[in-house]
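Memo to structure team: turn this sequence into structure tokens by end of day. - J.P.
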Amino acid sequence: MRVLFVCTGNTCRSPLGAAILERLAGEKGVEVRSAGTGAGAGSPATEEARRVAERHGLSLERHRSLPLEPEVLAWADHVLVMENYHKRTVERLGAGEKVTLLSEYGGDGRDIDDPFGMGEASYERVYELLETYLAQFLTTERHPK
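Reply from structure team:
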């Protein structure tokens, strides 16, 4: 199974989600990538994202941002997005059958707010949400609708 995480800048939420899923999936044959709807290529994860990841035993040191492009979407079996805006963007790019708002796996279907510029506590809240939703994603491994 190939899973693509999508957020805006690909420096906060989507790299955290990718790292969390890699750990949760373990040896289950899950390949993970991340990209951003407004990302430039090659930016590192934010300092706050790296610190939060490290506190939870993960590393984002090797992460570099990737723009969301049709080729990246074609690679994925599942596209997990952080906001409804990202979902609409993926749908416009022709991958609507693959896309799910990640919080649908937690039952509320709300956007996962961008923590950029909001302080480390916001990143920690995002981490906790991602971990919860991704545990449910792995349990179902199917579209929640």
